[in-house]
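User: Hi! I'm working on a homework problem where we have to compare a predicted structure to a textbook description. Could you give me the structure for the chain below?
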Amino acid sequence: MKRERSARILATLGPASSSREQIRALAEAGADVFRLNFSHGSHEDHAERLRTIREVEQEIGRPIGVLMDLQGPKLRVGRFAEGKVTLAAGAPFRLDLDPAAGDVNRANLPHPEIFAALEAGTELLLDDGKLRLRVDAFGADFAETTVLVGGVLSDRKGVNVPGVVLPISPLTAKDHADLAFGLSLGVDWVALSFVQRAEDLREAREIIGDRAWIMAKLEKPAAIDQLEPIVALADGIMVARGDLGVELPPQQVPVLQRRIVRASRAAGKPVVVATQMLESMITSPVPTRAEASDVATAIYDGADAVMLSAESASGQYPVEAVGIMHRIICEVERDPAWRAGLEASHTAAEANTPDAICCALRRVTGLLGAAVTVAYTTSGFSALRASRERPVAPILALTPQQATARRLALAWGVHAVPFEQVNDVTEMVEHAANAAVSHGFAKPGDDVVIIGGIPFGRSGTTNLLHVARIPR
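Assistant: Happy to help. Predicted structure tokens:
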């Protein structure tokens, strides 16, 4: 089950990657977590894919995480009488709640919440930013605009409102139904789309509870303004560069990506860099050199995981895309500059016992050249705090909870193993040494650094660090 790298790979499943053979091939090529995109596919499709993932998990003997990605509120124009129109720059164009088919002068925008949030001068982006409108006048049910950047606009194209906090929930009626279904299947992570503020996470938490971990997708500029509160409430963060890149100038996205990664690392929350990482591999067996550099940059910054979307879901080369991503990560992690960069960007631990223990873990592991660090964890807390420190040695997380092992599949450097509960320190050391050897992380004579909490089995009580040498 041992991975020869610390960063993880999140691969999206879809029409190109739904069979047992394909899912197993993706896992063997390097996928650690699979994404089920609920914007597409039926409940039956997703249930079958999850069932197959669990069967493959049993076959390969390594916990595999499953992330369900909720669609969230999709803002779209209505339909046009002729299917599409061509808007000319400088021309007036009206958006309103009238459900009648649109034409070159107006279109239906069935979202009163947009009109409620508008101001004069607000810009609206249509069709992923290909068209741009400026709001000149507005009311509760209309907006009179001027076309700034024209082009072809067709039925049901998306609308983005950059720089505006819209008074809407991130969970639509469809999301509520999908969420109930996904939780009944036992997904490990729930990705929440269209997060704008910390309150959005509280709303989701009330529904999800502890049945899954929540990943906040940062794809709205408004979310960046509340970055720290959002990171604090989420279990993980996704840098969703697709919509973020639509609503912001392209030159700002790399800067924000690094800021989000650093904020997530400082808080000890897994962070995923996503969207268009190996886009050309949808139709090509090899990526561009720029795409390889893009993946490498995320790894040099210390991201927990990188994600494939259409490359693995609907592309022609899904296994090859996972394989090259795996090789890029391994190459970066062999570079001494990668470790130096992690050390330079390391943030100070908080003044509490768990962080003090994990900070010491990082130092002790480095000084002794330990083969592996072993974290006993029930909730995953100890393993995540250890991962935050980015120790030199891999982290073997021993947990009595299968669900925790699967959730930790996304965390940097963590190799999670379901394990029985221990009752005392002697048993803890013995089991840690045996697990380190049996899973290929250590051999007789190696040092093992162990962390855990006393009393055993209680979440969030990391207060013990022990160094053991495996008997020869």
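For your comparison, note the following. The longest strand covers residues 131-139. Residues 398 and 417 are 5 Å apart (CA to CA). Good luck with the assignment!
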